[in-house]
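[Discussion] Sanity-checking designs against the backbone

I'm trying to build intuition for which residues belong where. Below is a structure token string of 410 positions. I'd appreciate it if someone posts a full sequence so I can compare it with mine line by line.
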């Protein structure tokens, strides 16, 4: 679990990933030069979100090469998922802004016809199942990683349940479990008759992997879900090679693979949260794995909530006592998520809507607590030292408890 030794084969693999990273950066820079060739740039973009303001709206738009934000008049008849042909100002955009997303002006636009995709059909199914716009937003985010409005995002942050809604490792595990067992018995029937020599479990895992890859594409390759998918692939490979799966090196390789192929994700907070979440799960397993499993089931969710607060509050200062609901919600979500997948397939998912509406509309008293920069750096340093030192892990837990007391009691 704590070995970080790198042999020659691993060093070659890391070198290849660095080469891939540099190649992708060179490709991205060539696209950037095309973008900057003139003072204006014309492209097709999908509206991935609309942020409503008093006097104007802010559009978040996604192209095949980059994402950007722009103001738009409120009287324009635009909605989420519309396809626009836009002419934008490219003069003040540097390469870093190009990678991480930038703010610019739309000089001209016109709406384009949209080709109906399988993703659109799923969205239509969700819309047909529900009447409340916020609940539709919730399920679109939960199943397809569609961006939600600022108001609904604030609800998630105020309840500290963003990790539940954002597609990541847990969602991938649930989906893989459901897909695996849906395939298992039909595949067994044909295998027993026509190809008994095949390794059934491995074949089904490969089919499941292919379906999950399609799902990853369907969600526009969300950074946190991509991290989970890469770890899933590495897990299968390591399992087949009889190599320990749960190791910090697995997480390190996952990070390198994702950044090598998608260097822009280095700027994604969601990706970093996903990496840190797995890191703290590994720390938990390293130090608490020998305790009673039923105790660990509850303690794990409590500890993960507390250990992550200093990280989250460096970026999102919103604080409320209702954030403690995150612990039972996270536990309950293990049942809720797969149940809602089935419920939407059979179009009976509206049963929970009235309870979700109460949950969303509940007024929360929110105050702000920021993690100071010095504490944030110290916390990360002690977290990494905990890989090798039990004393550092003990100190980490003291820092965790102290910060949460500071947040909620002082």
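Best answer:
Here's mine. Compare freely.
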């Amino acid at each position: 679990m704590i070995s970080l030794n790198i042999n020659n084969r691993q060093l070659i693999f890391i070198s290849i990933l660095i080469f891939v990273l540099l190649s992708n950066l060179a490709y991205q820079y060539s696209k950037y030069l095309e973008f900057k060739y003139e003072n204006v740039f014309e492209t097709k973009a999908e509206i991935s979100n609309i942020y409503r303001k008093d006097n104007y709206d802010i559009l978040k738009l996604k192209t095949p090469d980059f994402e950007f934000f722009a103001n738009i008049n409120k009287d324009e008849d635009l909605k989420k998922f519309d396809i626009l042909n836009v002419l934008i100002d490219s003069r003040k955009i540097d390469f870093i802004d190009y990678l991480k997303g930038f703010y610019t002006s739309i000089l001209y636009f016109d709406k384009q016809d949209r080709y109906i995709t399988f993703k659109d059909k799923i969205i239509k199914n969700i819309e047909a199942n529900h009447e409340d716009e916020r609940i539709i937003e919730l399920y679109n985010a939960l199943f397809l990683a569609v961006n939600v409005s600022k108001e609904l995002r604030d609800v998630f942050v105020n309840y500290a349940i963003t990790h539940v809604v954002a597609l990541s490792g847990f969602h991938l595990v649930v989906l893989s479990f459901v897909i695996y067992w849906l395939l298992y018995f039909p595949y067994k029937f044909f295998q027993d008759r026509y190809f008994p020599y095949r390794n059934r479990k491995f074949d089904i895992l490969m089919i499941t992997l292919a379906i999950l890859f399609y799902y990853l594409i369907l969600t526009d390759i969300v950074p946190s879900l991509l991290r989970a998918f890469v770890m899933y692939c590495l897990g299968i490979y390591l399992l087949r090679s009889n190599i320990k799966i749960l190791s910090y090196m697995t997480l390190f390789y996952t990070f390198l693979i994702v950044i090598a192929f998608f260097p822009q994700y280095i700027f994604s907070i969601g990706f970093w949260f996903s990496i840190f979440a797995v890191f703290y799960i590994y720390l938990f397993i390293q130090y608490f794995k020998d305790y009673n499993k039923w105790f660990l089931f509850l303690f794990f969710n409590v500890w993960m909530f507390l250990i992550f607060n200093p990280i989250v509050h460096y970026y999102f200062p919103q604080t409320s006592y209702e954030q403690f609901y995150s612990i039972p919600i996270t536990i309950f979500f293990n049942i809720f998520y797969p149940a809602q997948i089935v419920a939407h397939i059979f179009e009976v998912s509206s049963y929970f809507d009235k309870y979700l509406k109460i949950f969303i509309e509940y007024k929360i008293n929110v105050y702000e607590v920021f993690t100071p920069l010095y504490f944030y750096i110290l916390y990360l340093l002690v977290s990494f030292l905990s890989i090798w030192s039990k004393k550092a892990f003990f100190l980490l837990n003291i820092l965790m408890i102290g910060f949460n007391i500071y947040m909620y009691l002082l």
